[in-house]
Amino acid sequence: MIDLPKTNATRPNRRLRLDTLVRLRWLAVGGQTAALLVVHVGFGYPLPVGPAFALVALSAWLNIILKIRSPASLRLSESAATLQLSYDILQMSGLLFLTGGLDNPFAFLLIAPVMVSATALSARKTITLGTLATLCATVLAVLHLPLPWSNSPEFALPAIYSIGTWIALVSTLGFMAIYAFRVAEEARQLADALTATELVLAKEQHLNALDGLATAAAHELGTPLATIFLAAKELSDEFDKDDPRAEDISLIRSQSERCRDILRKLTSLSSDEDTMFQNMKISQLLEDVIDPHRGFGVDITVSASGKGPEPVGSRNAAIRYGLGNLLENAVDFANSRVEVTAVWDEKTVSISIRDDGPGFALEILAKIGDPYVSVRSGKTARSDTGGGLGLGFFIAKTLLERTKAKLFLENRAPPDHGAHIRVTWSRAAIESLGHMDGQDFSLHKN
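Structure tokens predicted for histidine kinase (446 residues):
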């Protein structure tokens, strides 16, 4: 099967741009400044203005230094991004300490840096920042200056209220962080899987382009080779048979003839008129897909039958790759036997792949087809390349659906056991070169 690239899960993430964090911090600086001015100047509430504005100014100076020293397009490493988000949590905690701790209604802004991490950084870094935010909230629940209020007796909320605020803040932090991380992670996985699909299609398009270049080269080289052959033939008559040069001329003539034969074969293989290579029956398609998977200790049986003449379609790379990947998974998880069956009638063509393995785990049966869903029940794959219905299955499903196919997945009914995958097309789609032309898939973005 076609090799697939490693996903970003194995590489350090560099998703956050420095400019993104700087802009968010400027937004925080503006909001904090406005809040302090409204409370102190607008409402006239006393608060430690000097230390509070010093913390705000510290964030502003940090932004200025970062903008001067680094380009805005710089993508931060996970450690650098985590360090900056940790500063944001500590800076916000410092302001909350000066202005009432968890009694301050702005205490929930401690969640913001953790949300940024959940959408862009790894789970480990997000847990680290979540732990830091929780520790800060715990300290602020106990140690803080009074909440800014009027000059009347000091405003104090019951301890039970502070405890409830702490529980609400920590619960919200955990829930929103997990939710944001899962949504962002699924988006990242889908983007990686689609990129891998694009690479598979680009590789097939490249092979098609090479096929066309071979045809062009055969036509271009045909004329000089014909000239060489003709010159060698005429020179052979100029020398006696005993002349040692006659042997060299004969060699040149025979090799030029061989080159002409090779070019003729290249031209015929690339010709659209050669139906032997461009079109194939369903039974031939199955043999083409199955052949690379024989000899792995699993018996693969094939049957093809139906009403009317056997359907004939184009030799399409997307179908061969998609079915090949499904078959590879079946072979990986089968105990001893895989059955491949093709059935057709006047309207539809269906190909079924059944194995005698453990089947699909019930809890993931509805999710199969999403990228990186890679669990079968009770047994691991024979090889690492199989992987078990993860990214490879997503690509196979995507390619097959682009050929107007529909996929149905289920476990075999007792007393049989194993998985059953059925791929169905309309007969018109299979037999129509317009639907089966590989060019349609390479240009699917248009």
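The chain is about 60% helix and 10% strand.
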